[in-house]
Amino acid sequence: MFTNILRRRGPAVLAAGAAAAAVLARAVPAGGSTGARQTSPEQAGYTANHAQFKEIDGNIYLRDPRPYAGMVARYGHNIQLWSADRVVSLNLHRQHLRRVLHSLGHHLQRTTHQVIASDPNAEHRGYRVEEWSPGVGGTWHWDNPNYWTSLSISYSPATGHLKMTVEPGPDLQGEIRWSYNLPRQSFTKARIGTNFGTSPWDTAYTYAPPAKPVKSAVYTGIRLTSYSGHKDDLSSWWMHHKLLALADRNLVAFPDNLAGGGASFHTWFAPKSAQSSS
Fold first, then answer.
1. Which of 72, 157, 193, 259 has the fewest CB within 10 Å, making it most exposed?
2. DSSP readout, the chain?
3. In the chain, what are the domain boundaries?
4. What is the C-alpha to C-alpha distance for residues 103 and 78, in angstroms, rounded to an integer?
5. What's the topology of domain 2-274?
């Protein structure tokens, strides 16, 4: 059913956003291996696979979420590593009516969707010169839409130790890290993008589409590291796929083409013209 919707509606979405996307994005770099589009119930962005990934890093520009409050109830950013039976997810989401940031680190069972660990061994500090304190700390406030922050998940195949970090850019203070020991994993899929649910499988949210595509997020500095130590952007020898958020048979959001040599892209809220008529 999702495939049929994409076949009917996907071209309309891309055509509707072409004018904006053409200004903001370049074509996918020639060296990249581009796979078929994929769908997620609650995330729009990019997936990389056909490799083993031990690290994913990316920068997110902190756009003011208040204009999106009438479209989706929850709005945030997410990076993930997937193995055959585990998903490690690092989230940064915001309350719509206030410029407030919340962070959450999750370790999930892929087949049952159960949370194995939430905010495992979280620590925070307000400044880099301070000592670490237990927990994720308070929320962050910001006043400038050009502020950005970095998300990172790093896994050691040799020891099974996993570390997640949220590190704001120079205009924000505060840092959070999580650590956890996993059974040995083979993470063969990595994701980054804009998310609207509480888990990778969440469909329990509503979407009020705008009249035309609206930019929802900007991602830069994306880097993946393979188990062999090869570090590169999304356009490297591994395969990358556009990831479309498709919930309740309707297209919620989509990414534009990779830019910045394969290290950046934007996501867009899908317009009314892209929604299912049934």
1. 157
2. -HHHHHHHHHHHHHHHTHHHHHHH-PPPPTTSEE---EEESSEEEEEEESS-EEEEEEEEE----GGGTTT-S-EEEEEEEE-SSEEEEEEEEEETTTTEEEEEEEEEETTT--EEEESTT-EEESSTTSPPEES--S-EE-S-TT-EEEEEEEE-TTT-EEEEEEEE-TTS--EEEEEEE-S-----EEEEEEE-SSSTT---------SS-EEEEEEEEEEEEETT--EE-TTSSSEEEEEEEEETTEEEEEE---BGGGTBEEEEE--GGGS---
3. 2-274
4. 10
5. Jelly Rolls (2.60.120)
In this structure, what DSSP letter does residue 259 have?
Answer: B
User: What's CA 269's distance to the chain center, in Å?
Assistant: 14
12: helix, strand or coil: helix
Q: Tell me the pLDDT tens digit for each residue of 62-74.
A: 777 778 888 988 8
The two three-digit tokens of residue 239, written as one number: 């395969």
Task: Tell me: pLDDT of 221 over 80.
Answer: yes
Q: Using CA atoms, how far apart are residues 60 and 168, in angstroms rounded to an integer?
A: 9
Write the pLDDT tens digit of every residue in 84-137.
Answer: 999 999 988 765 444 444 567 778 889 898 988 888 888 888 777 788 888 877
**Residue 84 amino acid letter:** A
